[in-house]
Amino acid sequence: MSNYFSSHCIILLCLFFIFEGLLFAQDSKNSQVPTTMTIAEFCSLNLDKEMSVKIKDEISAETIHTLMITCNDTDKGKIGPIDLDLSDCSFKNTECNLFITNLKNVRTLVLPKTTKIITFCRLSDLEDVVLPNGLEKIEEQAFFRTKLKSIAIPESVQYIGELAFGDNENLQYIKTFNNPHKAKWSPIWNAWNDAKILEGDADFIPEENNSKETYGTIHFSKRDCQMAFDTLDMEVRLDKAPETSQNAVLHFYDAHNKDESAGDIEIKVQKGKKEIAIKDYPARNFYVSETDDYYHIYNRIGEYWIKLCCKLEFSDGTTLPLEGFCYIYEAPMPDSIF
Question: Are 108 and 131 in contact (CB under 8 A)?
Answer without folding.
Answer: no
